[in-house]
Each structure stands twice: as structure tokens, then as C-alpha cells.
């Protein structure tokens, strides 16, 4: 597993206050998911110890948006664009750029 490579990733359990705020925010978002209709791209590392990947999966499944995509990265932690191996960061950027390209209109 390459998660150990990420030297800046927070590897401990979240602090109590952080956990409480995350729970409150998650509950607030969950109550409003039926109103989410804009395109969504959700990216999550499988080895994230800060936010459980199941939270992002639930967000994806419950959002009413018809244009949504969920990508889960094997062996990646919470900060997908910092501290991960270069090939992981390049893959994440590539996925983001591809999604944006699919959603941007060409302009003259």
C-alpha cells in the first residue's frame, strides 16, 4: 500500500471537535441532497481515514443530479493532490480535466 508515502497526510483519527463539525455538516448536506441538480464530480481515496469513503458514495447515490460521477482511488488517502505519488496526482488531475472537458462547451 502506498498511503504511507504521503508524508503530509493526517494519519490519526480526527479530533473530537473536527469530528463533531464533520458530522453536523454531513447531516446538513444529507438533508439537502434532493436539491442538488448541478453536475457533480466526487473523488475519494480508498484509504482516507479523515472522511470514510462511504460518505462520498452515499452523497453520490442520494444526490438528485442526473449528471454525476464518482471515482474512488485505490491506495490513496484524503489529500488526493498533495503528498500522493506523482502517478496518482497525475491520474487525479487527468480525471478532473477529462470531466471538465466533457462539461465545457467549445467557444469560437
From TrEMBL:
Matching InterPro entries: AB_hydrolase_fold, Hydrolase_4, MAG_DAG_Lipase
Against Pfam families, the record matches this protein to: Hydrolase_4 (PF12146)
- Top-level taxon: Eukaryota
Domain (Serine aminopeptidase S33): give its ranges: 10-85
Database matches in Gene3D superfamilies = alpha/beta hydrolase
Official protein name in the record: Serine aminopeptidase S33 domain-containing protein
Species name for this entry?
Answer: Rubroshorea leprosula
* Lineage start: Eukaryota, Viridiplantae, Streptophyta, Embryophyta, Tracheophyta
Amino acid at each position: 500500500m502506498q498511503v504511507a508515502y504521503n508524508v503530509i497526510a493526517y494519519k490519526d483519527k480526527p479530533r473530537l471537535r473536527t469530528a463533531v463539525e464533520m458530522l453536523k455538516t454531513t447531516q446538513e448536506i444529507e438533508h439537502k441532497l434532493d436539491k442538488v441538480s448541478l453536475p457533480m464530480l466526487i473523488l475519494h481515496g480508498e484509504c482516507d481515514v479523515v472522511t470514510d469513503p462511504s460518505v462520498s458514495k452515499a452523497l453520490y447515490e442520494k444526490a438528485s443530479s442526473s449528471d454525476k460521477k464518482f471515482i474512488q482511488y485505490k491506495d490513496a488517502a484524503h489529500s488526493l493532490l498533495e503528498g500522493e505519488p506523482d502517478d496518482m496526482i497525475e491520474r487525479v488531475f487527468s480525471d478532473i480535466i477529462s470531466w471538465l472537458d466533457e462539461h465545457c462547451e467549445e467557444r469560437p
